[in-house]
Amino acid sequence: MAATGACVFHDAVFSALRRDRAWSNGSFKSRSIAIHNARRFSVSTTSTDQVVSSSSETTATSSVSDLFGNGRFEKTYEHAATEIVGVGAEKESPSNSGWEDTEVRRSLKDYFEQSVELIGSDGGPPRWFSPLECGSRMDNSPLLLFLPGIDGVGLGLIKHHEKLGKIFDVWCLHIPVRDRTPFTELVKLVEKTVKNEHQYSPKKPIYLAGESLGACLALSVAARNPHIDIVLILSNPATCFSKSPLQPVISLLEFMPESLQVSLPYILNLLKGDASRPLADVGVILQLIVGELSQDLAALSCHLSVLADILPVETLNWKFKMLKHASADSNSCLHAVKAQTLMLCSGRDQLLPSIEEGGRLHQFLPKCEIRRFSNNGHFLFLEDGLDLAATIRGAGFYRRSQYVDYVSDFIPPSAAEVRNIFENFSFITFATSPVLLSTLEDGEIVRGLAGIPEEGPVLLVGYHMLLGLELAPMVGQFFKEKNIILRGMAHPMLFMKMKEGSLPDLATYDSFRMMGAVPVTAKNFYKLLSSKAHVLLYPGGMREALHRKGEEYKLFWPEESEFIRMAARFGAKIVPFGVVGEDDIGEVVFDYEDQMKIPVLKKRIEELTNEAVRLRAHVHGEVANQDVHFPGILPKLPGRFYYYFGKPFETEGRKEELRDRENAHKLYLQVKGEVENCLAYLTSKRENDPYRQLWPRLAYQAKHGFTSEVPTFKF
């Protein structure tokens, strides 16, 4: 059977079918579903274990008009989509060509309207369905199974269907309102699906995304299958159900006579302030549920009958009993969970103490990371403030094979995602009013990035400013002006910790991963250049970014030419650049040398360094000093950032010449010298900039508009 807005199968039919890649174009018929291919669509159910397979192409048709209307949801909005074409690897990779910037997403209203179609079913056993919006996925997309919360409808990801559907093969579990399948049987159903899909694609991960009750279900399945590559995405798991503020009221609800059962319209009256009515305590349950869905209860009044159909009192009773069982079962097997886990916790969850529970589960689960949403409630997937696809990618949890590949698994951000990322850095861009200069082929210096080669591979090599403050304005301008995503070679501490401690949480660096940063390794460097990317490399690394007092604009590059021969292998253009301005926004007054003289701070530096992956352990010289510390900085009234990209060095056709270490080293010294020249040029020329200081810039923008480009020195 097919439901409006989704491709839905009854279990008896579904277990006899196998998903076909031809469906990925979303070309479903409204009255029937054609299934091509001989492969099995293996889904476990409580009603049948039937499996049908054939070696020849078959076609199956199932009528949908009897149970699910016309078989398709009406779309009440139009797409305002702009295709975002990445650069380098992203321009040429077929896997990224379908990523679009969808500005309009479905709402809570859509959830209720589409739930009407699903809850009007035959009340049969649980079943899987794949939303029509998820029909345009990329090749080799991993499977994502959505396990619903207490509602059981399976539309909990409705606001995320379109974006998830481009990078995942999304299946949603629907549990009919009148279904009374026990929790253990639901575990078996999902487990059988996971096993069958793993058998079909043993080298691909299987994602289990669950909220509340569904999160418990996901944990139980993962614990029973530690040998299968499972990735858990858990939203406010109900493993802490025993601590829910609903507990006192649940007991009353269980023993309430049927004649006294209350309706949701009655609960609405309670929520509007008429607390004098009887049974107000019982109303607290649905009061919290409705309140979690929306703070504007009046806006939900037209959908209360739908919510009443989804969660009638007898179903609430059953779901609460199941939650108790689910919580106990999942807690009993936490020690067996080996799956990679992304925990999403809401700070304003009125149904469960989710923040505290996230911290508790983090201690039990060995591969767990937490993302906290302080302004969201229990029904996180249905609320604003979460982009699930972006959260998964930013956390580094998206992969299409056994191990994450930061090059081939990278999905270029959409324009909307880039805007959201750089809104967080807008202050530094506004405060420093960056000036970017580049050099054309004839040597002319121009303002802007016209001198940056359009086609990769391109290697940008330069000076790393204090704390890397130059990154956000530069990366943002490259995307804005050139539609180029700079693939930064970043310190591994942005991707993993050796152990828990005082280093910033990995969530701090989600935006870096979203924008294409990769761990700095020879393998990743090779892959990026081979895919014709624009690569950003800082040979001075952490030593430059955490420099000492008086070391502004001093390069700390290794003696060996680390990148020249690799660049020559792919004919990459090497663009040297310098950036100045850190001394106009702050001054290092308490550096590494000062801190190492104080025993307490020395011990802290050692602890921080041990938490991070150590680079260049076998390299000699000052660049090998990679100790992690946080220098004391005296801030100043913001000055201005200046960037100067020199004329590119060509390596195409010089592969054999630069195989020779001596020749490679000569070019290395030339590149280093050009970076120093760029720094010297900017340091000198900025003295002639009348808008170097903040107040003249503000005065200019007050007169010409705050979006106007502020002039600079003559060049």
Q: What this model shows, in words?
A:
The chain is an alpha/beta fold and 715 residues long. Among the domains are: 247-317, no CATH class; 415-583 and 637-704, Glycerol-3-phosphate (1)-acyltransferase (3-Layer(aba) Sandwich), CATH 3.40.1130. 35% of the residues lie in helices and 13% in strands. It contains 26 helices and 20 strands. The strands form 4 sheets. An 8-stranded mixed sheet has the order 1-4-6-5-7-8-9-10, sandwiched between helices. Helix 19 links the parallel strand 14 (486-490) and strand 15 (518-519). Helix 6 (183-200) packs across helix 7 (213-224). Mean pLDDT is 80; it is low at 1-98, 259-286 and 294-299. Belongs to the diacylglycerol acyltransferase family. GO terms for molecular function: diacylglycerol O-acyltransferase activity. Keywords: Acyltransferase, Transferase. It comes from Cucurbita maxima (Pumpkin). InterPro entries: AB_hydrolase_fold, DAGAT.
